[in-house]
Design brief:
alpha+beta; seven-stranded mixed sheet; 18 strands; globular
């Protein structure tokens, strides 16, 4: 936990007046999300479709490439949130990981080993064998419960199995093996950030395979499940502080985010029990976390409940958000110049996504 100092100014209608108040001190935590893009080990798992990510596979994925990928990712994680926060993120949501083992290898890397990250991970039913997970600095965050909540969607229709029980842990699962689209579960983690309870949902919503329009109902179902999880937490505690983050495979303006989840771009427009998306304004300015055919979008987002945008900072509140897109993360030449520097057949890159982050701050008394 770092301490920062702010000077505040008072803005009036007919002019700007500087209020020379005493400096206030704040505790600060960085919360980040990063799609690691195919963080596979080199071992062939017979239970998943990982054949191409082996030394003899299509990607020629060798031990040397794997180790370089780990070094690359650890460098990024060590720098996200600087310079406002001089330490690595307290909480890191991650996607496109093959298993817990790759995360154990990652947190041992020299750049981040000293932060003593813990891991929360479940195997998802995704056909490619990729999962989501949460990394957390043990000295600042203490998890008290965690669960993986399945997203039940089916071919030719978007069906989210309705839950008739109060407890999300009792979701009645009707398995339709023939028609089910197997995708990533949504990871729900509850714990204490210092002495405050918060909830984190880590997501990797269904891809746009088959086309954006045809696959949109799947992501809308993911947004509805997200909303259902948040509603259940707010029924228990109306002031529940919830962060939902991930690679949504949709931008802030798509139906899954705007309608199914109900995210708002402006704090003043967030209703009671609503959610705020600081990345919508960035998308409106043409910023992006990934590019396709020279068109940028922000698929990677961190969205917060209204309880995180109170103005008094007596407890941990949202301060500001950003996209971590340092020059070394950008392709410098060739066909994809300006794009995120991703893996290639000849070298291990970083990712085809830029990571995103937010700051949570609390006034120190």
């Amino acid at each position: 936990m770092q301490i920062i100092k702010f000077h505040f100014c008072l803005v009036a209608f007919f002019g700007i007046y500087i209020l020379n108040a005493q400096s206030k001190k704040y505790a600060i935590h960085t919360v980040a999300f990063y799609n690691f893009e195919n963080l596979f080990d080199i071992i062939d798992d017979p239970n998943t479709n990982d054949d191409e990510w082996t030394p003899t596979g299509a990607q020629h994925w060798t031990k040397e490439k794997y180790e370089q990928k780990l070094k690359n990712l650890s460098r990024v994680l060590s720098e996200i949130g600087t310079p406002e926060n001089s330490t690595a993120p307290t909480l890191i949501g991650c996607s496109e990981i093959e298993n817990r083992g790759v995360l154990e290898d990652l947190i041992k890397q020299e750049k981040i080993a000293g932060y003593d990250y813990g891991i929360i991970h479940f195997d998802s039913p995704d056909q490619r064998g990729i999962d989501v997970a949460l990394l957390y600095q043990k000295k600042y965050f203490r998890p008290t419960s965690f669960s993986n909540i399945p997203l039940l969607i089916y071919k030719n229709k978007s069906v989210l199995q309705e839950n008739n029980n109060e407890d999300l842990g009792d979701v009645e699962v009707k398995i339709d093996i023939k028609n089910r689209v197997f995708t990533r579960d949504q990871l729900l983690v509850t714990g204490f950030l210092d002495d405050e309870e918060i909830h984190i949902i880590v997501n990797h919503w269904p891809s746009r395979s088959g086309g954006e329009k045809a696959s949109s109902p799947y992501r809308e179902a993911a947004g509805k499940l997200n909303r259902k999880i948040i509603d259940s937490l707010q029924q228990i505690n109306p002031d529940a502080k919830v962060i939902t983050m991930g690679d949504l495979n949709d931008g802030p303006f798509n139906k899954s985010v705007k309608m199914a989840l109900g995210a708002k771009a402006k704090k003043a427009e967030v209703p009671e029990f609503g959610v705020y998306n600081p990345f919508e304004e960035m998308a409106g300015r043409g910023m992006g976390t990934l590019a396709f055919r020279d068109s940028w979008d922000i698929f990677d987002q961190i969205i917060l409940t209204k309880s995180f945008i109170e103005p008094d900072f007596a407890s941990y509140e949202f301060w500001k958000a950003g996209i971590f897109n340092k020059p070394y993360l950008i392709q410098a030449s060739g066909k994809y110049k300006g794009y995120p520097l991703r893996n290639s057949l000849t070298e291990a890159g970083f990712s085809d996504h830029f990571p995103v982050y937010i700051y949570l701050i609390r006034e120190l008394k």
